[in-house]
Design goal:
Elements (H helix, E strand, L loop, with lengths): L2 H14 L3 H20 L7 H24 L3 H15 L8 H11 L6 H12 L5 H12 L2
Length: 144
């Protein structure tokens, strides 16, 4: 089942269960996916587009959690964490630190530039590693 179709089905289920917060989050995600596909000139929301949008939405939530936590807004932190958990349920499972380190070590050579090295690792990770984690490990391997 396509991600957008699953979101729609989950929205209906949440509406029937009267889970207002979950319905709101699911509708927000569906709208973000539809908006992205329109901007890209696509008629339908492919899973590739959906995954890219979901990654961006997850990053937004992580940033919000940090900012709200720094401001002492625990109520908003809890809300953002709930949305992040929902988004992450649609994303591929993340690689373990050990597997990612092996991938970085195998993919990066000492003569590579930082950007090229990160890009090479991200291509091989196929969405299973966060860019920040990859950048930190590449930096460590390159000694930068």
């Amino acid at each position: 089942m396509a991600i957008i179709d699953d979101l729609k089905a989950q929205t209906i289920t949440a509406m029937k269960a009267k889970e207002a917060d979950r319905v709101s989050s699911l509708r927000s995600l569906s709208a973000a996916l539809l908006d992205a596909s329109k901007h890209m000139g696509e008629e339908t929301v492919s899973d590739k587009i959906a995954l890219e949008v979901l990654k961006k939405e997850a990053k937004k939530r992580r940033d919000s959690i940090t900012q709200y936590g720094d401001a002492g807004r625990d109520d908003l932190v809890a809300s953002e964490k709930a949305e992040l958990d929902l988004i992450e349920s649609y994303l591929p499972e993340q690689m373990s630190d050990e597997d990612l380190k092996v991938l970085v070590t195998a993919s990066v050579t000492s003569d590579m530039q930082m950007g090229a090295a990160i890009q090479a690792v991200m291509a091989k990770a196929q969405g299973q590693a966060d860019g920040g984690r990859v950048a930190a490990l590449v930096r460590e391997v390159l000694g930068a």
